[in-house]
Design goal:
Oligomer: single chain
Helix content: over 70%
Shape: rod-shaped
């Protein structure tokens, strides 16, 4: 084999190896990116669930307060003004 054909073969092999590595790297990066999306969705859904629980608890407290105010007189929760 001549020197030129050895150089051409080496460059072609190097290019093919680099191309295959690049494709695998891009697939790995895309897979990681998609997995981060899954984690973000799970965190968003957990936050939404927690907010709904807080709202339900708040509504329950409002209902209880209305029931207790109907049963007994409730004074203002602010301290009396000093003179």
């Amino acid at each position: 084999m001549s020197r030129a054909s050895k150089i051409t073969l080496g460059l072609a092999t190097g290019f093919c190896v680099f191309t295959v590595w690049g494709v695998h790297y891009m697939q790995w990066a895309e897979r990681e990116s998609m997995y981060q999306g899954v984690l973000k969705d799970e965190a968003r859904l957990a936050a939404k669930r927690k907010q709904q629980e807080r709202e339900a608890e708040f509504q329950e407290n409002l209902r209880k307060r209305a029931m207790y105010e109907a049963v007994q007189k409730v004074e203002s929760s602010s301290p009396p003004a000093l003179q």
